[in-house]
Design brief:
This protein is of the alpha/beta class and about 500 residues long. The chain is globular and about 75 Å long. The chain is built from 17 helices and 20 strands. The chain has 2 domains: about 280 residues, Aldehyde Dehydrogenase, Chain A, domain 1 (3-Layer(aba) Sandwich); about 180 residues, 3-Layer(aba) Sandwich (Aldehyde Dehydrogenase, Chain A, domain 2), CATH 3.40.309. Helix 10 links the parallel strand 10 and strand 11. A 7-stranded mixed beta sheet has the order 14-15-16-13-12-17-18, with helices on both faces. Bound molecules: nicotinamide-adenine-dinucleotide (NAD). The site of nicotinamide-adenine-dinucleotide has 29 residues, from helix 9 and helix 10. Belongs to the aldehyde dehydrogenase family.
Length: about 500
């Protein structure tokens, strides 16, 4: 029988999506709606409003008024801390509901969202708890007079103002938190745009934030596709900062589009992250399972930081390939609410066509297909399913070793020594993450220092709410997570104050 998710739709209780402007939910000024089709079944799941330019104006005006009035940024620190902690608690209380909504949005299986920390509601809650701690600790410096004499030189950290936060579809819990928590902790106000492929989850997250006590206007939500809704935000003169997570192509466009008003921009973009598996890896089979898991399990490789290039020492190459295929075989596909299902479909037909195109490219450029490489049919024929795909003997310059595919495709590249491995690892336009598998501590740190990437996992990787995350090179601008993240939502102001009339 062909897969259907309709019974879950009724059980989760999906509502029609509306805009959230100035503390009120409503349809906005337009008549346009977006119909969300489920990636696993192709069924219509629900509709939400497409915000008009007037709606975006209203959202920005509301955020500006809220910012200028200081209802949030000038309220007692203990009030702001309490709201952020209360929200973290609400997220945890509503975790099951949110996971269900996400499964209806992007078809990430419950088996994954309930067990893998980085994509869990609990991680998002931890990010809010962490940032609540920064609310009353952000400060500047008082410096001794450089030129001598009697004066004070000081710095203050001021909230940057109105932030346009634009989200991708793949990890709504964490990515909502990574933007909204530091922006609020810094005292900013926000206009948020979720991805059109993952809207219902984010609307509920916004609703819970209001329930936690966030004042009206502090967070506004406009829904709809990148063009026109995102476009109206990134060019809006009332927006002070664009905080974007998504593809490199849109990131580049944001840099160009925001140039007219010199907005502050932070970008979390794509990657082609390598895993370097040395002959002295503590457990080659576990390394292979970790790499293949990241490229297939849960999001089916639609994860920015997945190690989609495995650079493997020739001495353990065959062992790695064998274990990699064993892990790939374990993936199961279907209804995301079924606890036995471990991996998702691709998000939409465009991505399905793109991934299948890369698989053909891999074959035509001479890589050896050792596993998968096909769209899944049968009961799954109406979904965008592609099974785990492993290419061996890939040239590091091949298209599938250089471009972000955003699908369950692993390129395995052999190497002979450490120098060659590091050179190939860095031979990419991206620099988001990397993995190093070695039992030799000196090698692990030596190689980690040489890799041009923002996050390195040594014999494993986990997201930490207080650890900066972001990219070198074309993987982004700035960092999310921890102190550097909250500082990115502030402007630094210097104040000079003579203490006598002599310096005036
Ligand atoms: P995308 O770039 O297609 O869309 C991201 C967001 O940008 C969506 O909300 C979309 O509507 C919006 N958008 C599209 N065109 C726009 C425009 N002209 N102006 C303003 N906004 C516009 O990306 P996606 O398919 O949603 O997500 C996948 C990409 O995100 C991958 O490249 C992945 O690597 C990256 N990603 C990066 C991180 C990270 O932390 N570095 C995390 C998750 C995903």
């Amino acid at each position: 029988m062909t897969l259907t998710v309709q019974p879950h739709r009724e059980a989760v209780g999906l509502k029609t999506g509306q805009l959230y402007l100035d503390g009120q939910w409503g349809p906005g000024t337009g008549s346009g709606t977006w119909t969300h089709r489920h990636p696993a079944s192709g069924e219509e799941i629900g509709e939400f409003a497409i915000a008009t330019a007037a709606d975006v104006d209203a959202a920005v005006a509301s955020a500006r008024d809220a910012f200028e009035s200081g209802t949030w940024s000038n309220s007692r620190a203990s009030t702001r801390v309490a709201v952020l902690h209360r929200y973290a608690d609400l997220l945890r209380e509503h975790a099951e509901e949110l996971r269900g909504l996400q499964a209806l949005d992007n078809s990430v299986p419950l088996s994954f969202s309930s067990t893998i920390y980085a994509t869990s509601v609990g991680a998002a809650a931890d990010v809010f708890d962490h940032h609540a701690g920064w609310v009353d600790k952000l400060g500047g410096e008082t410096l001794a007079p450089y030129q001598g004499g009697d004066h004070l030189a000081m710095t203050f950290r001021e909230p940057i103002g109105v932030v346009a936060a634009i989200l991708p579809w793949n990890a709504p819990f964490l990515l909502f938190a990574q933007k909204v928590a530091p922006a609020l902790a810094a005292g900013c106000t926000i206009v948020l745009k979720p991805s059109e492929y993952c809207t219902f989850t984010v609307l509920r997250m916004a609703e819970l934030l209001a329930e936690a006590g966030l004042p009206a206007g502090t967070l506004n939500v406009v829904t709809g596709p990148g063009d026109p809704v995102g476009e109206a935000l990134i060019t809006h003169p009332g927006v002070d900062k664009v905080s974007f997570t998504g593809s490199r192509a849109v990131g580049r466009h944001i840099v160009e589009a925001s140039a007219g008003t010199l907005k502050r921009v932070s970008l979390e973009l794509g990657g082609k992250s390598p895993a370097l598996v040395f002959a002295d890896a503590p457990n080659v089979a576990l390394a292979a399972a970790t790499v293949v898991g990241a490229v297939t399990m849960g999001l089916s490789g639609q994860a920015c930081v997945a190690n989609t290039r495995a650079l493997v020492h020739r001495d353990v190459y065959d062992e790695f390939l064998g274990a990699a295929q064993g892990m790939a075989q374990a993936m199961t596909y279907g209804d995301p609410f079924d606890p036995g299902v471990t991996a998702s479909p691709l998000i939409n037909e465009k991505q399905l066509t793109r991934v299948l195109g890369y698989i053909e490219k891999g074959k035509s450029e001479g890589a050896r297909l050792v596993f998968g490489g096909e769209r899944l049919g049968g009961d799954l024929e109406n979904g965008n399913f592609v099974g785990p795909t492993i290419f061996a003997d890939v040239d590091n310059n091949a298209t599938i070793a250089q471009e972000e595919i955003f699908g369950p495709v692993l390129a395995v590249v052999p190497f002979s020594d450490e120098e060659e491995a590091v050179r190939m690892a860095n031979d990419t336009e991206y620099g988001l993450g990397a993995g190093v598998f070695s039992a030799d501590v000196q090698r692990a740190f030596r190689v980690s220092r040489k890799l041009r990437a923002g996050t390195i996992g040594v014999n494993g990787f986990q997201v930490e709410p207080h650890l900066p995350f972001g990219g070198f090179k074309q993987s982004g601008l700035g960092r999310e997570g921890g102190k550097s993240s909250i500082e990115a939502y502030t402007e630094l102001k210097s104040v000079f104050l003579p203490l006598t009339d002599e310096m005036m």
